[in-house]
Amino acid sequence: MNTGKLYLVGIGPGDAGHLTPAAAAAIAESEDLVGYRYYIEQVAQDASNQTLHSMELGQELERAALAVDLAYAGKTVAVVSSGDAGIYGMAGPVFRVLTDRQWDGIGPTVETVPGVSALQSSAALLGSPLMQDFCAISLSNLLTPWEQICRRLNAAAAGDFVAVLYNPRSRRRVTQLDEARRIFLEHRPATTPVGVVRHAFRPEQAVSLSDLSRLDGEQLVIDMFTTVVIGNSNTYVHNGRMVTPRGYEAKQ
Length: 252
Fold this sequence. Notes:
The chain has helices at residues 21-29, 37-44, 60-72, 91-100, 118-126, 146-158, 176-185; strands at residues 5-10, 32-36, 51-55, 76-81, 109-113, 127-128, 134-138, 162-166, 193-198, 206-211, 226-230, 236-238, 241-243.
């Protein structure tokens, strides 16, 4: 019996040049595409033979449930995420739904297709900020308690990690980035370099270099399409590039 197949696809930043051949093949093979409206629009021009299922932000579990239903019905389905599906993407909600449905690990078949993540795209545009140990922290407290996020921010700041902040601000969440900045200022100088990348490798792309003293959101457009990279004690700026040296040698 054909129980269908689920592709968990990361489409990278969204432009065709950064869509991997494996991701393109998975989308082409699929009968149905499920994803956030903005990401479905990015792949729709090459999806003339597929049924498109677009949903809004906040409907991640609904998207996952629909995709799983379609796969159990025998369809080949691509669940589309920006960046990498396994990094703050749709892999988590889909596997949660599969777990709730007592998935046997066999049918439907599930394959995760990796993509170019937001932290990779942002690092490429900024210079070389991720050359030492780094961590990624989402500031969205929709699914994670804010107290737990603060503990992680404190640990990252105290541990001298380069920190990549996802989901820094939304229309409803306007204080979290300021609180994160306050936490990092307890451990790092105000001059610590910060890179802000919005819509990486998309037509609306904007790249800014700042520091902790100026990361207040007033002069920078920071929203859900923005990634914030906070340097560590060795990070510096040289000719418009944010650089973290490969080892802890003295800055030149």
